[in-house]
Amino acid sequence: MRHFDHIDTARRKHLFYRHPRSFDRHDDPAVLAVALGATLYAPATRPALADDVQKAARRGVASMVVCLEDAIADADVADAEANAVAQFRDLRERGGDAPLLFVRVRAPGQIADLVDRLGDAAELVTGFVLPKFTAADGAPFLDALEETAARTGLRLLAMPVIESREAVHAESRAELLRDVALLLDKHRDRILAIRLGATDMSAAYGLRRPPDLTIYDIRPVAGAISDVVNILGRADGTGFVVTGPVWEYFSAGERMFKPQLRRSPFEAQHAAPLRQRLITSDLDGLIREVHLDKANGLTGKTVIHPSHVATVHALSVVTHEEYCDAADILGWSGGGAMASSYANKMNEAKPHRAWAERLMLRARVFGVAAEGVTFVELIDAAGPAGPARGDAVLSRAGQA
What integer pLDDT is reported at residue 399 of this predicted model? Predict the structure, then answer.
């Protein structure tokens, strides 16, 4: 698969200075972790799940999670498992394109059981999402994953979710995250990315983020995210990709604050109607939060509606200016500093090197925008801004 392949060739040539490169589930996990992009969650009870998956792929979705945990009522778990197995088998029989597919389980024993029940269709599963992850509760999940992979010969990757109360509460957070870091290091080849469960984190304080604020405005949760990045997202070779928390709104209600999108970038592209559609669907809040995700060291995002995907992916494209800066930085040896190619900032070879290396990996999978192309053009090209009439919401739950 390749990001933005659903856009026609002529338009892609206009949009990109360097085009995104293709990838598949067998690629290096370091590439796949960045390529996840907007990860769409869907409950395993969806009766037309196979159709949903193929429709999502046509809309540019590159990763999906089929949820057997919080999106499913306790009484429905057995039916959800049976449906997931049937739908994955149907997908395999159909063939064709599908996103990277993950299953969010609620118990370690589900991993081996589901893989066995899937049979040949298990090859569609890239990995498993492990909920409410702590060192104590997470170890059995990782052991089950290792054992199942060794027994079947499948490469099964893990995405632990940091969302437990112990990970949020200040007095227990540092110790928990250090213990998690030690555990994940033992299974490093199996860990694809760390996910953040902002819904559960907020629940620890009886909070819910409103659509006109970002998760970074919710200070107790923002502090927890900061510590997760500090301990698990370091750029010294000990860290992992940490993905952005869920955006759980897809239709605007009453607004308390002004829209967060300036008019001028849209007017320059004659795209005022696009701005209005983004605002109407509360996607101006999503745009701001993705921007803050990137600034705080997070990559990609959990989403609960297909209309979110274009926004996240458009903002994941490396700008021409960023690419020039990174290329200059990586081209220097021995340190030093000089003005950027755009003559608007200072680039330092040593302090900015880790940033440049990460940016080049994102450029590989999301491409580099052509000079003068803005996020406005990319969002407009990537997909509809807001839910279409009759467009089903794939997930009831904004988890992880």
Answer: 46
pLDDT of the residue at 265? 73
Q: Quick one: three-class SS letters along the chain?
A: CCCCCCCCHHHHHHHEEECCCCCCCCCCHHHHHHHCCEEEEEECCCCCHHHHHHHHHHCCCCEEEEECCCCCCHHHHHHHHHHHHHHHHHHHHHCCCCCEEEEECCCCHHHHHHHHHHHHHHHHEEEEEECCCCHHHHHHHHHHHHHHHHHHCCCCEEEEEECCHHHHCHHHHHHHHHHHHHHHHHCHHHECCEEECHHHHHHCCCCCCCCCCCHHHCHHHHHHHHHHHHHHCCCCCCCCCECEEEECCCCCCCCCCCCCCCCHHHHHCCCHHHHHHHHHCCHHHHHHHHHHHHHCCCCCEEECCHHHHHHHHHCCCECHHHHHHHHHHHHCCCCCEEECCCCCCEEECCCCHHHHHHHHHHHHHHCEECCCCCHHHHHHHHCCCCCCCCCCCCCCCCCC
Bridging pattern class, strands 346-348 and 337-339: antiparallel
Give the pLDDT confidence score for residue 282 in this predicted structure.
64
Alpha-carbon distances, residue 356 vs 23, 266, 328, 362, 363 (angstroms): 21, 29, 9, 10, 10
Give me the CATH topology for the region 24-260+284-315: TIM Barrel (3.20.20)
Separation CA 153–CA 30 (nearest Å): 20
Nearest 5 degrees, angle CA 356-CA 65-CA 32?
Answer: 30
State residue 393's pLDDT score: 47
Give residue 107's pLDDT: 97
Token pair for 85:
């197995």
Residues of the chain under the 70 pLDDT cut: 251-263, 266-268, 270-272, 274-282, 384-400
Give the integer Cα–Cα distance in Å for 97 and 100.
10
Tokens of 182: 């030690």
- Whether the full predicted model's pTM is greater than 0.70, yes or no, is yes
CA 341 to the chain's CA centroid: 31
- The residues near 131 (Cβ < 8 Å, ≥ 6 apart) are 69, 70, 104, 105, 106, 161, 163, 197, 399, 400
Domain boundaries in the chain?
Answer: 24-260+284-315, 322-363
pLDDT value, residue 388: 47
Question: Which tokens hold the place of 118?
Answer: 């899937």
